[in-house]
Specification:
Layout lengths: L2 E6 L4 H10 L5 E6 L8 H4 L2 H19 L12 H26 L5 E4 L3 E5 L2 E4 L2 E4 L2 E4 L3 E3 L12 E2 L1 H6 L6 E5 L3 H14 L2 E5 L11 H15 L7 E8 L5 E7 L4 E6 L1 E4 L3 E3 L23 E2 L2 E6 L10 H19 L12 E4 L8 E5 L2 H6 L4 E7 L4 H5 L6 E7 L5 E7 L3 H13 L18 H15 L1
Parallel strand pairs: 1-2, 1-7, 2-3, 7-18, 9-15, 10-11, 10-15
Antiparallel strand pairs: 4-5, 5-6, 8-16, 12-13, 13-14, 17-18, 19-20, 20-23, 21-22, 22-23
Helix pairs in contact: 1-8, 3-4, 3-6
Length: 469
């Protein structure tokens, strides 16, 4: 039985992954649609890849600034050179993505349409002057910047993460709203590359919501000390207004109801992203976006033949998750067409934030201590400071910590958190331990010439001893 699948958003990471999974299926006709220009999706154009490009420039200066063994004037970051190289690389990366999609379109029963798609009914989309009927529709349109509904926000100018990535100059001072993963990555860049005086608004006691509290506390200390940031905590934005000299004034309320006022030259909005659905004309369908509108099978709650993958489903806006969701959705489309049971997408938490300009990234794999206890595990916890291992001092990156959580009854590794140099690199190793449910006592206790994974060796030994006890 042949089925026709329409993918809206084929240039993005989720859409391209979906196309790659289905393109060689003999009984699938594919119509791939995207109006992106130059085409490539958020990660390639305005997200994880270009952001790491600019962060690397800030990281070099940050490390030079903190190393007292280096003499001479501190180099300045050439923002025009940073943006020029970033743009060259983005065009190259986007070209690879476009080429992949265009190669798919060379297959029999595959068509790519470079245009905008809107729904006509549940399974019919309009593209240009055509109407295309499908057996299954995949929505993979990604996300757009979330502008909070705050009084006065449209009366002041502001910059988003996309603006920062393109900026060749910065003002002298700024206010940052949004201290999630976008803010944690870009705030140090604003400080290091722009030399700005920054006030960063934090709603809670500490940033890094997915981490145990000591990691949020360590992050707050690092950002205040290393980047000289003003970070008021437990405050909420109330309203904005322009200043007489063209700047911005933000009114805050603290946990006691007291008002605080901060002023700066510019406002930076790192307030997250929301599903990009505005142009789809979903009113013509049964779909009602909102909490719970997409099942774990990646099917829309309101239509079993519509699948929604990637940022647009609002579940977890991370590149690798978007691709994994697409892989599962592709399998489920085939299963549904054959009358077979569908499988839910199961995600073992695996996330990296390139905090501290990527010099001090945060990584979490699996459970943290809080979620492990909530899940009912009897746990043993091993914690270690980076400064406990001489290798971090020798590499002049002594800050940070790590934690390992294991099941005390059988030694199963449940989760790892790290906020330290090379934590992002170690995350893959820890993912293997967690997803293979290895016993911490069976992980080889073998150290090599001093390297930064010594911090993992120490965690493993400590956790293994706790289980044996």
């Amino acid at each position: 039985m042949s089925i026709h699948v329409v993918v809206i958003g084929a240039y993005g990471s989720a859409g391209a992954a979906m196309a790659g999974e289905l393109v060689d299926e003999p009984d699938v006709e594919l119509t791939l649609i995207d109006d992106g220009e130059p085409g490539g999706g958020l990660c390639i154009l305005k997200g994880c890849m270009p952001s790491k490009e600019v962060l690397s420039a800030g990281a070099h200066r940050f490390q030079a600034r903190h190393d007292e063994r280096l003499d001479g004037p501190l180099p300045e970051i050439d923002l025009e050179a940073v943006v020029e190289r970033k743009d060259d690389h983005v065009l190259s990366w986007a070209g690879h993505r476009r080429a992949a999609v265009e190669e798919y379109a060379e297959h029999d029963d595959v068509e790519f349409i470079h245009d905008t798609a809107t729904f006509v009914d549940d399974h019919t989309v309009a593209v240009g002057d055509r109407e295309i009927e499908a057996d299954y529709v995949v929505v993979a349109t990604g996300s757009v910047v979330n502008i909070p509904d705050l009084p006065g926000i449209h009366d002041v100018g502001f910059q988003t993460s996309a603006d920062v990535l393109d900026a060749t100059e910065f003002p002298d001072s700024g206010i940052v709203m949004g201290f999630g993963y976008i803010g944690l990555e870009l705030v140090p860049y604003l400080s290091e590359a722009g030399g700005m005086d920054l006030t960063v608004i934090e709603h809670d006691d500490y940033p890094v919501d997915e981490a145990d509290s000591e990691f949020g506390e360590a992050t707050l200390d690092l950002y205040r000390d290393a980047f000289d940031l003003d970070i008021p905590t437990n405050v909420y934005e109330q309203r904005l207004e322009p200043t007489d000299d063209g700047g911005v004034r933000l009114y805050l309320e603290d946990e006691d109801g007291e008002e605080e006022v901060v002023e700066a030259d510019d406002l930076f909005l790192f307030t997250g992203r929301r599903p990009a659905i505005d142009r789809l004309n979903l009113d013509a369908t049964a779909l009602e976006p909102g909490p719970g509108w997409v099942e774990e099978t990646m099917q829309a709650r309101d239509d079993e033949r519509t699948f929604v993958v990637g940022d647009v489903n609002g579940k977890e806006p991370i590149l690798h998750v978007a691709k994994e969701q697409a892989f599962q959705a592709a399998d489920n489309i085939l299963a549904h067409a054959n009358g077979e049971d569908l499988e839910a997408y199961e995600n073992t938490h695996h996330h990296v934030i390139f905090s501290g300009l990527g010099v001090y990234p945060f990584a979490r794999v699996g459970h943290n201590e809080e979620t492990a206890r909530e899940a009912g595990y009897d746990i043993a916890v091993a914690s270690r400071n980076a400064s406990d291992d001489g290798v971090f001092k020798s590499k002049d990156v002594p800050e940070g910590l790590a934690k390992l959580v294991v099941d005390r009854t059988d030694g199963t590794v449940l989760g790892y958190q790290g906020l330290h140099y090379h934590a992002d690199v170690m995350a893959k190793t820890m993912q293997v331990l967690v997803e293979m449910e290895l016993d911490v006592r069976e992980v080889p206790d073998r150290s090599y010439h001093p390297t930064t994974p010594e911090i993992i060796d120490g965690l493993l030994r400590e956790a293994a001893a706790a289980v044996d006890e």
